[in-house]
Design a protein that fits this description.
It is found in: Membrane. By secondary structure, this protein is an alpha/beta fold. It has 14 helices and eleven strands.
Length: 455
């Protein structure tokens, strides 16, 4: 099916097709895992046949190699590589990052336990005595212990109970220790690993994979954002209240049309001079980008955004996300938002191509005061013929995404839903409920596009 899309901005660069990127990405992940496991095959299978302590340690080495392959994959998933972001979307990459991270940690635990048990059986020492000897006598093990401790910290703060208690910025800062932890695991592998002792090719390959991973992080998470921030010189021009605790931040810069940015994208922002400027904040554009302006509309969660002043410098990373016209399949579109999730959809309403009557906006909020950007939405409705439905009230029973007592269904609000592309943005549970309702109404999966406010 042919994608319906808006014209490219002047600064758009050629990008490989998403399908090609997906194939290459999966091949790279499986290929790297296969190469690392192949180092284990000859000595590993030999030790398995011997049974006893050699077999236990062989299983541990296999678990360790697989864990390292997955840990490096986990880092690459969040390296902000533009082609991966465009092909999969950050929502998908983040889910895989979480799943791969916990899987690799479990394998790391298996590696530690089986190695400890294997050495204990082989040497005939008491368990605690052998653990002490492994840590203090084997080369590189102190680095590995420190690296493992950092990974335990990152896993602990990634549990849902801990994440609910931490601000995103603090969680993100602590999460960066995973990079150091993974790096500290490498020395003990090269110095003690049976698969690497005397194997120059294996050592060179492991170095190459580590350096490629580190290089990707430095290039796309450090160098590229700094280069773009320096080139485009973003500054704040206006901070305007939009509702209780909500402000719009208007910014201007140079040659912004040279950025591969469009309505629906979000970026990571740092506002110099404000509290917490060292930590980035993920916010979507709330207006279509122009040659010299960008705008975001956000809830000020104590980060000092309401106290920004004109002329304040802005650093940014991105753009990220797939909630754009690039994924569109149909002429007609339905945009469904809850709360501050209206921001990327308001920008999409401005940028997407559609005729009067071909666009429907459903905006859900708890109270009338929570309906931000209401006047702008009304103006777009008048100018472009958008059907706007404002739904106010507490959430209905069960997993219903509509307000209690709404008295309507998705089909009432969006006639012939299967002929629409759905763009959905809001809290995770609410978004899942909307997508489930759309699927029940017969909307194909490739016409459902969402951005969830979660981390």
């Amino acid at each position: 099916m042919q994608t319906i899309d808006t014209p490219r901005r002047a600064g758009a660069r050629f990008a490989p097709p998403d399908k090609f990127v997906r194939v290459v990405a999966f091949a790279a992940v499986l290929g790297n895992l296969g190469v690392l496991v192949s180092f284990w095959l000859s000595p590993g299978l030999h030790d398995l046949v011997l049974l006893g302590a050699p077999a236990v340690m062989s299983i541990g080495r296999l678990a360790g190699l697989t864990a390292i392959a997955l840990l490096l994959t986990q880092v690459m998933l969040m390296a902000r590589i533009p082609w991966l972001e465009r092909a999969f979307g950050q929502d998908t990459l983040a889910r895989w990052h979480r799943w791969v991270g916990f899987t690799s940690f479990h394998l790391l635990v298996v590696h530690i336990l089986t190695t400890w048990v294997g050495y204990t059986w082989d040497h005939g020492h008491p368990y605690l005595h052998e653990l002490w000897r492994i840590v203090w006598e084997l080369r590189g093990m102190l680095y590995a212990v420190a690296g493992t401790a950092l990974l335990v910290l990152v896993v602990a703060i990634s549990l849902r109970a801990a994440r609910r208690r931490l601000r995103y910025e603090l969680w993100h800062l602590l999460h960066l220790y995973a990079y150091l932890g993974i790096g500290l695991l490498m020395p003990h592998m090269l110095w003690n690993g049976t698969e690497f002792l005397g194997q120059t090719w294996a050592k060179r390959y492991l170095w190459a994979v580590y350096l490629l991973t580190a290089g990707s992080v430095l290039a796309f998470r450090v160098a590229l954002p700094l280069l773009r921030s320096w080139r485009h010189q973003l500054t704040v021009t206006e901070v305007r209240p939009e509702g209780p605790g909500v402000v719009s931040v208007q910014m201007t810069g140079r040659e912004l049309d040279r950025l591969p940015i469009r309505a629906g994208h979000f970026l990571q922002w740092r506002f110099l001079g404000t509290r917490g400027w060292t930590r980035s904040h993920p916010y979507s554009l709330s207006a279509a980008p122009t040659r010299d302006t960008l705008r975001i509309t956000v809830k000020d969660a104590g980060d000092g955004l309401a106290h920004l002043w004109p002329g304040a410098r802005v650093l940014f990373e991105g753009p990220y996300g797939r909630l754009t016209g690039a994924v569109r399949r149909k002429r007609r579109v339905a945009l469904i938002a809850a709360g501050i999730g209206i921001t990327p959809l308001r920008a999409l309403l401005e940028e997407l191509e559609y005729a009067p009557g071909e666009a429907v906006l459903i905006y859900r909020a708890r109270t009338e005061a929570d309906l931000v950007l209401r006047e702008e939405l009304a103006e777009l409705a008048r100018e472009r013929g958008v059907q706007v439905h404002l739904l106010v009230g507490g959430r209905g029973p069960g997993d219903d995404w509509l307000p209690a007592g709404a008295g309507v269904t998705l089909g009432d609000l969006v006639p012939d839903p299967a002929e629409h592309d759905f763009y959905v943005c809001g809290p995770p549970e609410w978004t899942r409920a909307v997508l489930a309702a759309a699927r029940r109404a017969g909307v194909p999966r490739d016409q459902l596009h969402s951005e969830r406010f979660s981390w």
